[in-house]
Structure formats: structure tokens, C-alpha cells
Amino acid sequence: MVPVKVYGLPMNGSVARVLACLEEVDAEYEVVVVDLHTGEHKRLPHLARNVAQIKRLIGIFFFFCRLTALQSGASFSGWRPDSLWIRTLHCLASCVMLPIVFQGLVVPVYMGGTSGLKVIEENLEKLKEIMEVYEERLSKLKYLAGNFLSLADISHFPMVHLLQETPYGSVLDAYPHVKAWMAAVMDRPAVKKVMVLMKTFG
Question: Whole-angstrom Cα distance, residue 166 to residue 35?
Fold first, then answer.
């Protein structure tokens, strides 16, 4: 089988999520680094890639994930009846985690700047409110969509991993079920491999 080409930086949450899914189904892939810092993603030849082909690849990829999951007995059924609720919470969590990661990790480490403490504090408070909902959910279920791993869980690990790389990762300590859930996700061999890639290509 021809390896899937994944364009981007593994440190990017969306790229890491795709890589984790590919690892979970033992698919061959090749990371083609696209340097966002220099704006490579806005220039040729990246823009010249056939968008229609990329969309078809995405469709084939998710079909492949679902089919392989069924064959292996695993579950990647992120599209359950409650998946809209899960995806909405994922968006909320990412939207409030992202400013914390940017100000707490990207600005001081990669840009040599000073963290915006006000932005961090505001979003930490928002994150705590959201984590209360997660804690309640995960006190009843092992994973977000039920007692099985799904795309909903895999989707969360990149941003949580980056959050833990900041001085503010301890915010999750107050939520034992959330910590146990994410520890289980991050303990998967596929996710461990991607976390190494995130650091290597960071």
C-alpha cells in the first residue's frame, strides 16, 4: 500500500490527531513537513496540491479507519448520537487551551517573548468550568463516548499534551477522572509514538 502523505508539523494538533489515527490502524504514512512559521502553507507548491484529491483522501481515510476498527474489534465510532455534544466540548476545550498553550509555551519558548498572563488566567478559569463537565461525564464512563476508545478521545490528546508542556498543566490535577482518562489515552503505543514525533518536529 502506498504510504499516506501527511502535510504539516506533528506538533500541530490537527496533524497529531491524524497521525495518531493512522498509527492506531497500523497504516503506513510519510510526514511531509510544511513550515507554518515561514508561511510555506500559503505559497506554491503547497497551494497547488489538488484540493479535490485531498478531500477524497480524507473520505477514504475515515472509511479505512472505521473498516479496520471493525475488523480489529476496536471502536472508532466518533459519530454516535452524542458525538455532536462531544465535538462541541472538544472545540470549547481546544479554544480555551490554545491561548494557554500559545502564551505559556509558544511565545516564551519558540518566539522568545513574554507570556500574556492575563490571557492565560482568563482561559484557565474557562477551562476549569469545562473540565467540571468532563469530570462529571468521565465519572460515569471510561471514555467520552462510552466504555470504549473513540475518535472523540484521540482528538483531545494533542492539545492536552501541549498544555502539560506549559507551567499550567497542573490545572488538570483537580479532576481525577479527567487525568485518568487522558493518562489511558496517552499510554496507548500509537499516541506515545506521535508524542515523540511532536517533540522531534517541534
Answer: 22
Buried b (16+ CB within 10 A) or exposed e, 83-109: beebbebbeebbebbbbbbbbbbbbee
Bigger pLDDT: 52 vs 135:
135
**Nearest CA among 62, 134, 36 for reference residue 93:** 134
Q: Look at residue 139 and give its three-state secondary structure.
A: coil
| Structural domain that includes position 63 | 4-72
Q: What is the pTM of this model?
A: 0.76
DSSP string, 15-56: HHHHHHHHHHTT--EEEE---TTTTGGGSTTGGGS-HHHHHH
My answer on whether 111 and 171 are in the same domain is yes
Residue where a domain terminates, one of 41, 72, 103? 72
pLDDT exceeds 80 at position 103? yes
